[in-house]
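Entry:
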Amino acid sequence: MNTRMTSKKGRQWLSLIATVFISQLLLQWFQNELNISLVFNFVFRWHTIKFLISWLVLLVPAIWIWAVVGKVRLANLTFFSLSAIIGFMSFEKMRQRSEPLYPSDFSMVSSVGSLVEMLTPTLLFAIVILVLMIGVLLFFVIRQERKQTSLKLSKRSRIVMLLLSSFGLVYLSTFSKEGNLVKKAYDYSAYWIPYSQQMNYYNNGFVAGFLYNLPADTMDKPAGDEGDVLQTIEETYSEKAAAINSQRSATVEQPNIIFIMNESFADPFDLKETSQVWDPIPFTRTLSQESWSGRMLSQGYGGGTANIEFEALTALSMEPFAAHVSTPFTQFLPKETTFPSIVSKLKGRGYYATAIHPYNTSMYKRRQNYDNLAFDAFYYDETMTNRLKIDNNPYISDQSAYDEVIQVMADSVETDFVHLVTMQNHMPYAAKYDDYPLFQETGYRNEKINQYLQDLNYSDQALEQFYEDLQALDEPTAVVFWGDHWPSVFGEKILENNGQTTLHQTPAIIFTNYLSDSQPLGLLSPIYFYSELARLTDQPVSGFDAFLMDLRQEVPAFEKGMYYSKEKEDFVKSRDDLSEQAQHLLEIYDWIMYDMTTGKKTLINSGFFDDFN
């Protein structure tokens, strides 16, 4: 009898081990974009050791599930189903945004309703079918288990397994901490790539890549004595700010300032495949020639709106953050009760700060984050007055969003800072409009691309009307307009044909209703928007702004894995490929950001970000 029981237990363990192995193959299959050949090479030729380590890692949650449910068949099905769902989610995210699934993405579960609205009908149908299949399988397995007298774990075994696997899960959660033994095991064969998580997951596998992105400190402490370094930074750049401000004499002391981050706004003429028979953005093109304009280097492709917004509002780049920090709006900003930003800077000068986003507030915890950034008011889809949509587009139009800006400014008695994040051009693009350009005008046969180009045309028309409304306004107003990122609708082939850096550049324009001046901005990162605006309008700057002006001279634009070298007039992939002065300034930037996010906040308390000399 004991021999038979031991044999059954052995088969149960073997079935769990086999299920974990198959589940990991499934995860790797999704990671390798459904390419079986790549999976085979990864497992049996290139990265066998890493695969085996990941297999052992996955056994920990599998054992935990078995300990909870008690029966191995149910545990196997549950683990395999979860693996299928997670793998599919990562595959879709890679397809839509060219980046894998991160642990922080699960914080978006509270926004599941908003995410569903953005799915195409085909994708939504596929997800529903997948969930139904898993549900049916679980139902039959549970029903079968109730009918049959199968071997169940003893209470003692379940408690021991639950305690040990729970400890294992907690230990795995410290993967990024110094001295973690699992991390050390991977280090023998892993090639970690902090600047590209797409390559990090590809080289090390889904499990290793996922572990690498688990939460840890926002930034590693730079080398040097914290007190001395920060004191030198503050003294040096506060003096520079004072010198700059002594030379500035603005014709308008405090103009209204409007930030417009236009969803998926890009210039299709930047692509080789686009026909120039029809221009979807003629007004934007003319405005660019008559204003301060250039191209913004976007951190994202096909997504990443909140990260570009974070960079523009805080002047903190995503580049120096630890690799696991993929979305500050969900990972650390909500924990900050106050945080230096352009908003707090302008409020210190008497501005009234308003945020407008014509969508719901669940995405990226915007309501909480806008509070932490010191906005006075936040208008969204349910509280906006202007909420018109065009044809079948599910999102509020750009024209309505701009009308809301004008109304907010008209109702305000203070000088205004208005930050608008539009939604009209957001995916999905199928069947948005009744009338849209065709192949003869655009060069594209893909209806979704042509629908997107119609999106751009409506955006362009709305911007023209907004420009005219501002010219009629008797309040001096300055505007920073930019597209947050390219949409992924053009596909991988066009991306490869035009190069990664091309599809990470979007239009950026700075204009006013009281100055007539044009100047090329060249390529720039969104962290420089305010310092460039202050230069155009002759406004005073803080010590931090003065530093950013120096940094822009050496490194005009940068993100992880993409650094524009002033000397080479081209992109390089690493800080090491930049000049010594550029590297030195980036090290100073590391210290500033470390102090703000992880350190003692010495510079915040000293007024380095908000004081004007």
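The mean pLDDT is 89.
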